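With this grant's support, we have settled on a layout for protein records. One resulting record is reproduced below.
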Amino acid sequence: MTGQGPVSFVDVRRRFEFRSIEVGRWVTPPERDRAAGRFYEALCDLMSILQGPEHLISLRGSLGLQYGIGGRPGVAAHYIPATRQLALAKNAGAGSLAHEWFHAFDHYMGHKAFRRLGSGGFASSGWLDSADQKEHPLNKRLGACFQAILLNEDGTSPSSLFQCSKRADTQMKVLYYARPEELCARAFEAFVEDSQPQSNFLVRGTVYSDEARAGLYPEGKQRQRINDAFEGYFMALGGALYREHAEDGPVGQSLSSTS
């Protein structure tokens, strides 16, 4: 709810400055209105957790949303790198928003944080591949997040999260759970859920789920290290973006529109 009544997707777009919001033709008006309210509440939760302004959520207006369009069998939500759109299924999107948002953020930061990574590259993959990282204090903090997720405590070998994910991929004969962008999106989910958001539309299942029981989310000391790294990074990023807004000046390579 806003101060004037129920939230619409127009309100969501205006508040967070999304590039576009598309709603499927088979979504009824009541379903559309319920979804708009859930998106709004979840994104407000996310903004509070990340301690940043609205345009952090929309990645400076570069991110588009889809709801109830297309979809893939068995897939609740997905991020589309080619069009920079975050898509949630009509009946199965709840709890997936944080995961897909981090995919969008990871993709957005690819060419912001690294040189010669390419427009389709994710920052997490670039870090793991030792791509040429741009010098900036915020990029260093982001790298610390990736290290906490992908490597063990002293940084000398793969993390327990990676090992569990690799075993799951081997058992299922796929390469999915151990991909760096998937590891980092699940770690971000855990960070968000541990921050105790009010909306379960944003995230759920990082503690009590089949995937959690299989070790596919961070656990124990590693989970705390990751949470600390994410909190430090987003606190610094949010502070920089708020200062930028106040001073109307650029923030280096943190979330800037320059490459």
In short: The chain has a mean pLDDT of 91. The first strand starts at residue 20 and ends at 23. The chain is about 50% helix and 10% strand.
